[in-house]
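Technical note accompanying the year-one report. For the benefit of new consortium partners, we illustrate the data format agreed upon in the data management plan: each record pairs a sequence with a structure-token string. No post-processing was applied to the example shown here.
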Amino acid sequence: MATGRTHRPATRSRGIPEATVARLPLYLRALTALSERSVPTVSSEELAAAAGVNSAKLRKDFSYLGSYGTRGVGYDVEYLVYQISRELGLTQDWPVVIVGIGNLGAALANYGGFASRGFRVAALIDADPAMAGKPVAGIPVQHTDDLEKIITDNGVSIGVIATPAGAAQQVCDRLVAAGVTSILNFAPTVLSVPDGVDVRKVDLSIELQILAFHEQRKAGEENAAHEGAVPPPVAHDETTDQGPDGDVPAVMPA
């Protein structure tokens, strides 16, 4: 079975923009839902609406994959699922380690969607000696003393950090030194990594703060309307609630 240590996705070598790469999981999620309902084909407009993007952007994204659909018919759902899965590297096995098995780490370990999306939780690791050997989601927790050996033995190239902020950088350094080249960081801190290591940060408090900003703005507009005043125009900055180039960040598996 292929592992993440020896096979890398082809997206960068084929020149697919990072903004397009960030949207591919959104398309795959929508297509998977259609496939589960046995829908054979889908139009660009329908798929774009399901993925939360505009149809012109979707067609441009798919052109990088060499998929243009059929006029009057649309896109073949099963073929697109395969094509995007292959482009994202999901047609092979990606062993993942989760470091930090507190409430969040345990929740991630119990998430049932990893396996169906090409990811296998190879190990759960925690610094608390009392956690060692305890099963979480059917997987016994291992101590951080064995982190390097666990990564080597399982051929891991993707690590998930769910530790407190103060421990995250040290864990990150050890993961990178052991050969991990991609990190998903749930710790509320910015990690420093060398070139060649990819980090995706998930900060739920930041997402909530962004929503609070929008709620406050809506409340201000409502108050102004009740008072009979015309609220000043507010420019909508698409980067406030979207990622680079307008892509919506998929912060959690769905």
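Partners are asked to follow this layout when depositing records. The first strand starts at residue 41 and ends at 42.
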